[in-house]
């Protein structure tokens, strides 16, 4: 006799709603402090493990405990791989893009084939397509939190590390005060940092093969990947360690890279074009010395853009009037230092969803508004969400809309 125990969907949604409001009250109910002694030890350990080889930094995974008991997770990874392979058969566009990604990564030693028999960990993955991206529209997203019920995942064995990113609100507010502003992002930032050879076997995945005698081929990541618990910390800690070497020579650039570089996005500015040119050129040079490529430089100054092209910092010919770009998830109008929320997806979501409590929760949760420009609307919706937690079912239809 087999008994299957499942969490009630209603209870799960209620728990998610409760946890969401707990996060929303951070800074009101919880006292947030700076980095503690444990955080400093993690930073020190990471910096001690960093080494510079063949034009890039190499580091190990940030282990919380030794992975001696970590299960390989092969069966779950194989099941997801079979499902993924079936999806690719019906979507030639995504299939071609994913195959090009792996082909490029093999050629650049980002991934490599390995021996299946050696112990390690297999990561399930899926493809994610973004129609609004100007560069790669499809990408592979790895799941390092996957594990069989009762087992621990790879992420359970890894430290998260302290958050070394600056305040997102501070970055956006500073971005708005400058007369000449610019932004850019580091190309495939995570993949520019190597993983120590001993840790690569814990970053394995299955892939298609042209060998008719094989069902699949085993690949492993040689670089930091987006999806592991410690990856955001490793990226920021590596950049922080590198840029501080230039503190005496380029103090203004170092200050900018420490306080205006959020993850892999740089948003800053200056009062004059020459100052902006000096800062942006310095940032490109400093990051290039660590193997990072700062690309897609954009500015509200045509003069600065012309100087970038003249100095080989950008190959963009020019920008159109009323051109809008994404900056840290917000919309930026190039003709003025103005950033805001793109409400079109929000309105489309409201129009397409049913008149239910679930649809309201889904709509509110997807809004990214660090500047709180939609605070009146969100407050009204959140008050309605709080009411959901006190009465009725979250999935109840015919919810009165605001």
Automatic annotation (TrEMBL):
<dbReference type="InterPro" id="IPR043128">
    <property type="entry name" value="Rev_trsase/Diguanyl_cyclase"/>
</dbReference>
<protein>
    <recommendedName>
        <fullName>Reverse transcriptase domain-containing protein</fullName>
    </recommendedName>
</protein>
<dbReference type="InterPro" id="IPR043502">
    <property type="entry name" value="DNA/RNA_pol_sf"/>
</dbReference>
<dbReference type="GO" id="GO:0071897">
    <property type="term" value="P:DNA biosynthetic process"/>
</dbReference>
């Amino acid at each position: 006799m087999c008994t299957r125990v499942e969490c009630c969907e209603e209870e799960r949604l209620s728990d998610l709603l409760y946890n969401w409001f707990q996060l929303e009250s951070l800074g009101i109910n919880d006292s947030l402090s700076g980095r503690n002694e444990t955080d400093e030890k993690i930073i020190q350990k990471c910096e001690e493990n960093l080494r510079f080889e063949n034009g890039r930094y190499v580091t190990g995974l940030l282990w919380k405990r030794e992975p001696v008991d970590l299960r390989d997770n092969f069966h779950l990874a194989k099941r997801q791989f079979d499902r993924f392979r079936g999806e690719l058969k019906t979507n030639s566009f995504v299939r071609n893009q994913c195959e090009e990604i792996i082909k490029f990564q093999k050629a650049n030693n980002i991934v490599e084939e390995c021996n299946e028999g050696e112990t390690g960990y297999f990561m399930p993955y899926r493809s994610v397509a973004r129609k609004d991206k100007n560069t790669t529209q499809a990408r592979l997203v790895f799941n390092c939190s996957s594990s069989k019920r009762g087992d621990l995942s790879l992420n359970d064995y890894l430290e998260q590390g302290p958050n070394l990113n600056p305040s997102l609100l501070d970055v956006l507010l500073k971005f708005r005060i400058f007369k000449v502003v610019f932004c850019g992002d580091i190309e495939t930032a995570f993949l520019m940092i190597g993983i120590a050879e001993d840790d690569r076997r814990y970053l394995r995945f299955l892939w298609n093969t042209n060998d008719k005698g094989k069902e699949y081929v085993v690949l492993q990541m040689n670089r930091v990947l987006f999806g592991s618990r410690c990856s955001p910390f490793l990226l920021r800690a590596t950049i922080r360690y590198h840029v501080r070497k230039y503190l005496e020579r380029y103090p203004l650039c170092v200050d900018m890279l420490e306080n205006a570089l959020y993850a892999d996005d740089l948003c800053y500015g200056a009062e004059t074009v020459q100052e902006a040119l000096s800062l942006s050129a310095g940032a490109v040079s400093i990051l290039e010395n660590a193997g990072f490529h700062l690309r897609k430089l954009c500015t509200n100054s045509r003069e600065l853009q012309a100087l970038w092209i003249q100095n080989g910092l950008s190959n963009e010919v020019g920008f159109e009037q009323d051109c809008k770009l994404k900056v840290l998830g917000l919309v930026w109008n190039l003709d003025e230092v103005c950033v805001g929320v793109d409400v079109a997806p929000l309105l489309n979501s409201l129009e397409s969803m049913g008149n239910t409590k679930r649809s309201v929760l889904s709509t509110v949760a997807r809004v990214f508004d660090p500047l709180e420009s939609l605070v009146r609307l969100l407050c009204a919706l959140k008050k309605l969400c709080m009411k959901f937690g006190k009465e009725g079912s979250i999935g109840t239809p015919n919810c009165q809309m605001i």
